Amino acid sequence: MTTEQQDKVNKITRIANGKILTPKGWIGHGNLFLKGNKIWKLEHEDQPLTNEEKVFDAEGMYVVPGGIDLHVHGGGGHDFMEGTEESFRTAVAAHMQHGTTAILPTLAASTLPMIRAAVATTEKLMAEEDSPIIGLHLEGPYINKMMAGGQIPENIKDPDPDEYMPLLEETRCIKRCDAAPELPGALAFGKYASSKGILTAIAHTEAEYDLVKSAYEAGYTHATHFYNAMHGFHKCREFKHEGTVESVYLIEPMTVELIADGIHVPPAILRLVYNIKRADRICLITDAMACSAGGSDKIYDKRVIIEDSVCKLADRSSLAGSIATMDRLVRTMVQKAGIPLEEVIRMSSETPAKLMNIFARKGSIEVGKDADIVVYDSDLNIRAVWAMGNLVTTTTYR
Fold first, then answer.
1. Which DSSP symbol is given to 90?
2. What is the C-alpha to C-alpha distance for residues 145 and 378, in angstroms, rounded to an integer?
3. Mean pLDDT to the nearest integer, 95-102
4. Distances 88 to 80, 82, 84, 140, 276 between C-alpha atoms, Å
5. Residue ranges per domain, the chain?
6. What residues have CB less than 8 Å from 274, skipping those under 6 apart?
7. What is the DSSP string of 51-106?
8. How far apart are CA 355 and CA 289, in angstroms?
9. Which residues make Cβ contacts (< 8 Å) with residue 214, sequence separation at least 6?
């Protein structure tokens, strides 16, 4: 180990005087110590400063685990579909500034060469020390064209085992796959993908209860951007039908994710989902596009416009993704949906960590876990972010 590496391992950061969220509740005026890339210790009372420490005075602010985004397409002007190191690094860095400390890059419906390029980049970056990338998410191409939203129609297709089996055999970086269960071969795809330990979700679908139930039994345990690109209760001529939404509610163990920007799902419905599913079955996701987190605020790709703080198809027929960041999701859930902050943080950190089977090292503030920490002020604006013990952004530091 080099001297530089040894110094990094031994580096101690103290986050002092904060209101620290732990699995057992809040600790007022506590001191959180980071050593290297791990949470080293937690003290309930103030301790004398040492020359070896760098100190961030949290001044009674909220100290919480970093956000884990399981559905994000890009940021800072780049989309993960580009497949390049530059696009990945730029988008990830942009979101880290806003409280996302672990990220699952997402591809919209893509061609096989595009997927393979993204796989190669994901594998390379995941191999780097302290990487915030936890895998790759394929939102398609196996979705319903009638519910495509902002997805590229030319890339949408039915599940093809000659395509997905070799792909999922040759890499372990694909950690999540989405599909519409009504497509031919979709249930077989769900069984295969879930057998590989991949989080498998229903998405861009017209499925009703019987099919959603069959999909759940085939391995589809999660619902992509809940309430979006799926039907709710509706009529077909004179008869009423349950939608995908009600079906997911009825299958109690199914987990959901919410684009909690207050636009994709109104605050009252965010509260309804919380009342029914509770924090242990909800993840907050940005579903952010390239134009989020410091990207262009005008045009995304000719098909999509930015208007009313959201992405829309240019003809305004549908929403097409978000420009949200993790801190915006947290503020919306607390300030507009009226959900307690500790429950919201569970949805942004603990629940996604458990869904991705990384809760042993991420998702909560506990000694020995990765030093992924966010400090919010009383208005829930970010004041500091550490990812794997590395300071990403701050406003008050000495």
1. H
2. 44
3. 97
4. 6, 8, 6, 19, 36
5. 3-64+365-394, 67-355
6. 282, 333, 337, 339, 343
7. TTEEEEE-TT-EEEEPEEEEEE-EETTEEGGG--HHHHHHHHHHHHTTTEEEEEEE
8. 23
9. 181, 187
Q: How many alpha carbons lie under 13 Å from residue 90 in its C-beta half-sphere? A: 20
Measured in degrees and rounded to the nearest 5, phi and psi for residue 84 equal -95, 160
Query: 3-state class of 43 per DSSP?
Result: strand
Residue entry with tokens 């605050």: 267
Please report where in the chains the tokens 């990812």 appear, as a residue.
Answer: 387
Q: How far is CA 199 from the centre of its chain?
A: 13
The pLDDT tens digits for 14-49 are 999 999 999 999 999 899 999 999 999 998 866 666
The residue to which tokens 């999922």 are assigned: 168
Which 3 state secondary structure label does DSSP give 100? strand
Token readout for 111 is: 């061609």
Amino acid identity, position 379: D
Calpha distance 226→231 (Å, rounded):
10
Per the omega criterion (within 30 degrees of 0), is the bond before 113 cis? no
At 330-386, the pLDDT tens digits run 999 999 999 999 999 999 999 999 999 999 999 999 999 999 999 999 999 999 999
Domain 3-64+365-394: which CATH number of 3.40.50.720, 3.40.630.40, 3.40.190.10, 2.30.40.10 = 2.30.40.10
Max CA pair span of the chain? 76
Give the whole-angstrom CA distance, residue 169 versus residue 196: 9
Q: Alpha-carbon distance 259 to 17, whole Å?
A: 32
- Token pair for 289: 């596009």
SS3 label, residue 86 = helix
What CATH superfamily is the domain 67-355? Metal-dependent hydrolases (3.20.20.140)
The rounded distance, in Å, linking the Cα atoms of 361 and 367 is 10
Cα-based distances in Å from 342 to 20, 21, 62, 151, 163: 10, 7, 10, 34, 43
pLDDT tens string 152-163: 999 999 999 999
Q: To which residue do tokens 């309804």 refer?
A: 272
Closest CA to 373 of 19, 11, 10: 19
